[in-house]
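Technical note accompanying the year-one report. For the benefit of new consortium partners, we illustrate the data format agreed upon in the data management plan: each record pairs a sequence with a structure-token string. No post-processing was applied to the example shown here.
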Amino acid sequence: MSQQADTLVWGHGPSIFEVFLEPTCPFSVRTFNKLDALLAHAGEEKITVKIRLQSQPWHLYSGLIVRYILAAACESKEAAKKVMQAVADHREEFEFTDHCTGPNRDATPNQILNRLKAYSGVDASAAFDQPDLQTAIKWHCKYARQNGIHVSPTFMVNGLVQPELSSGDDIERWSSVLTG
């Protein structure tokens, strides 16, 4: 296992689609669940999709979950994708009711980590425990901040924020913006 998180990049085309996602945000989940279809529709030779993790404090276990995803990325980007899919498929089991209450108030960080491992089938515990994983976490945070990203999902095309794009758009809309 690498001690460095793999980049969360799929496709190899000249048009760059960066999506800033908070894994437990329902709108980010909607976006995440469309990315494979977008790549298939537009073509991996025409677009590159880059997932940027946008931890947000009102999603109370956000930092913990982002760290686990990046820990999984130390194995591979596909392992990280499995963790993200597990969170998407079981989102409410990682979120608080109204961002402040509910059953997860009694959940410990270790219980959340165990859920991530059980649902994804990815054991990222060893990488999670490495202090140098902070480098990847800080990179995602700093990259979002330098680009003025505050909410999730946020979309960038070729380095420019696209405020008119949303998680509610169909993949044909995204594809038309990416491939002209």
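Partners are asked to follow this layout when depositing records. The mean pLDDT is 95.
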